[in-house]
Amino acid sequence: MLVNKVEICGVNTSRLPVLSNQKMRELLAQAKAGDMQARDKLIYGNLRLVLSVIQRFNNRGEYVDDLFQVGCIGLIKAIDNFDLSQNVKFSTYAVPMIIGEIRRYLRDNNPIRVSRSLRDVAYKALQVRDQLVTKNSKEPTVGEIASELGLSEEEVVYALDAIQEPISLFEPIYHDGGDPIFVMDQVKDEKNQDSDWLEGIAIREAIEKLTQREQMILRLRFFEGKTQMEVAEEIGISQAQVSRLEKAALKHMRKCM
């Protein structure tokens, strides 16, 4: 993403105006009264706000033009829904709207598809979490969130996990001026341990001590997934003989290992 790009969607961002708070309220009042020119001035006068928000998403690999356009949708929604009677600055109201629109866009365009029902549960859980934090001034437990929603803890955890955005294994998580530490450095591989590697060597050595027929039977049975009947037909013996040879081969291997 080109965070220092000057022209975005045909707009020269270096020349964007800045509206004073008084001018903002005047234009908002006019726009509420149906003045479309005032509404357009509000949109153009707050594009710097959109530009500042999309800087937060500069590591997502998204095109800045796309994020800018989505951010503008959030800005327009904020302008159309802002309540002048509330003693709140427009930017305070608009920034969360713009961020929400961008996050919705990123979720909907995520290559990992999550069902609508699962996303709904996750968003409701996040809303309940915020409500409980405001009410109790502390982070709620998963059990408390699940209780408010009338769901099991497993359902809430599964839904929240589903909307987490994937990250690269090569994402740096710490850098002290030397070699960076990546996510993959902190991930334990349960399937690639020294014990498994040594066990693989032991199995190969044990197989080499079997007869050629025994090796063939084990290869067909456990590496190619064939049934004893299929093995019997392939090597020209009975299924009972295959069963007997297989058991003898496995017993011999256990002794060797």
Largest sheet: 2 strands, antiparallel
Poorly predicted segments: none
Structure summary, number of beta strands: 4
Number of helices: 12
One letter per element, helices H and strands E, the order comes to EEHHHHHHHHEEHHHH
Mean pLDDT: 79
Question: Which geometry do the CA atoms define?
Answer: elongated
Structure description:
- With about 260 residues, the protein is mainly alpha-helical.
- About 60% of the residues lie in helices and about 5% in strands.
- The protein has a two-stranded antiparallel ribbon with strand order 1-2. The chain has a two-stranded antiparallel sheet with strand order 3-4.
- A hairpin with a 6-residue loop joins strand 3 (about 170-175) and strand 4 (about 180).
- The chain is elongated, with a radius of gyration of 31 Å.
- The relative contact order is 0.06.
- The model has no long low-confidence stretch (mean pLDDT about 80).
